[in-house]
Amino acid sequence: MNTNQTVLAVIGLSILTSLPVARVVAQAPPTPDQMVAALKQNLAESQKQLRQYEWVETTAISLKGEEKSRKQQRVYYGADGKLTKLPLGEPPAAAPAPSGGRRGGGKVKQQVVENKKNDMQEYMEKAAALIQQYVPPNPAQIQKAKDAGHMQMQPQPDGKLRVEFRNYVQPNDQMSIDVDAKAALLSGLSVATYLEKPEDAVTLNVRFATLADGTSYTAQTTLDAKAKNIRVVIENSGHRPLAR
């Protein structure tokens, strides 16, 4: 597995375990303590629900709006409880450059391309490491943010509720969790943060969907690193019962 695939695996694993199921009391608006308790409980429930299924994960990476790579993997939880990803339709390896002829200029150009590719991979590794601090949300970190007064609950249209955590990992960042109170399901999760400097913004947006049996899952996740014009879109589809 190359560096790029490793980074995507890390991001994908984090996303798949990020509260796919929410059971929030749908009657009266919950108190902050009730909400924190529900979030903690759902961290455990999320993995249990998805272990019954396998699905296809499609990952597309774009640079400056141009898609650079796309790959698909079969995803499921193994008997050991670990997430397993198997490549589907892996493209053939690129043919080596032909030998002979005038290659001096070609070598320089190829080196420039390789340097840019390595820079992008290094940047994505840093972004993935940062996102891991947010997704899946850490129960202790959620409690810490609430106790510090950094948690707010904002009513939204159509019976939804947004739980916002500011200064969650670093100063002036924000993590928001959207809950459909009527259906008692998580509908979205977003993170606005940065790497080394505030202008080096990194965002993560997760959209959820529901299977026929009521199991909620991450349908689409978009990672944007605007400083580098990098976008990673991960889609999960084709869920079916896992045959043991």
Sum this structure up briefly.
With 244 residues, this protein is α+β, with helices and mostly antiparallel strands. It is built from 4 helices and 10 strands, in the order ααβββααβββββββ.
Q: Can you give a write-up of this model?
A:
The protein is built from 4 helices and 10 strands, in the order H-H-E-E-E-H-H-E-E-E-E-E-E-E. With 244 residues, it is an alpha+beta fold. Strand 2 and strand 3 form a beta hairpin.
Layout of strands and helices, then pairs:
Blueprint: H1 3-16, H2 32-50, E1 53-63, E2 66-77, E3 83-88, H3 104-131, H4 139-147, E4 151-156, E5 160-166, E6 174-180, E7 185-194, E8 201-210, E9 216-225, E10 230-241
Antiparallel strand pairs: 1-2, 1-10, 2-3, 4-5, 5-6, 6-7, 7-8, 8-9, 9-10
Helix pairs in contact: 1-3, 2-4
Summary keywords:
single chain, 244 residues, alpha+beta, 10-stranded antiparallel beta sheet, 4 helices, 37% strand
Low-pLDDT parts are 16-26
Main structural class: alpha+beta
**Termini gap:** 26 Å
What is the oligomeric state here? single chain
Task: Describe the main β-sheet briefly.
Answer: 10 strands, antiparallel
Task: Give the averaged pLDDT, no decimals.
Answer: 78
Strand content: 35-45%
In total, the number of domains comes to: 1
Strand order of the largest sheet: 3-2-1-10-9-8-7-6-5-4
Estimate the helix proportion, in percent: 25-40%
Shape: globular
